[in-house]
Write a structure and sequence with these properties.
This protein is α+β, with helices and mostly antiparallel strands. It contains three helices and 13 strands; from the N terminus they run H-E-H-E-E-E-E-E-E-E-E-E-E-E-E-H. The chain starts with a helix and ends in a 23-residue tail after the last helix.
């Protein structure tokens, strides 16, 4: 019995030490990063859960640039999925929000920021232009999409990025007296 408990403790400790530590991006974290002088555009961001965007494709549209097309209830839908832990970069910084891009291209970003009733320690959440029921309407690739799942998504950074310091170190070489022959000595 004692050996089973000891084995469980060892396995738990090993699993905890293997997981990468992360910290949700919040107003407090943002202030700490900005105080170090690190630009927010130089951090690696990650999405904390799966997100699905969808929009109805109109009959006169012939080009779908990304995602998949699914026929559902007599409608053609364009669906774009974003999987949990996908890395993203910050493309624009605004006072209470950031644009995070998870793929290359113009207008391919999601907006994350401080929500209306959030405290400074609450994580930045995915923001929508408007809400229709439980679905957030956003503009992505210049088109109107709805957030069908992941409406409570947040972003995080690795805590090592917050704690990293750059240290410049050098050793003084010293100086010696140089005797100048033209200088009289007493």
């Amino acid at each position: 019995m004692k050996s089973n408990i000891l084995l469980a403790i060892i396995i738990s400790a090993a699993l905890c030490s293997c997981s990468s530590s992360r910290i949700y991006f919040s107003t407090q974290v943002r202030q700490k990063v900005e105080n170090t002088g690190t630009p927010l555009t130089q951090l690696q961001y990650y999405i904390d859960r799966d997100v699905e965007l969808s929009r109805e494709i109109l009959k006169d549209e012939t080009k779908v640039t990304s995602g998949i097309v699914r026929f559902e209830n007599g409608k053609n839908l364009n669906i774009i999925t974003l999987k949990r832990n996908t890395p993203g970069v910050c493309t624009k910084v605004l006072p209470d929000k950031v644009y995070i891009s998870f793929e290359i291209g113009d207008d391919k970003y999601l907006t994350f920021g401080k929500t209306k009733f959030a405290t400074d320690s609450d994580p930045y959440k995915i923001l929508a232009n408007s809400w229709i029921g439980n679905f957030g309407a956003i503009t992505y690739e210049g088109k109107k999409y709805f957030i069908h799942s992941g409406t409570d998504a947040s972003i995080f950074i690795k805590s090592s990025e917050l704690n990293s310091e750059e240290i410049n170190k050098r050793q003084m070489k010293g100086r010696t007296i140089v005797n100048n022959p033209s200088t009289p000595t007493n």
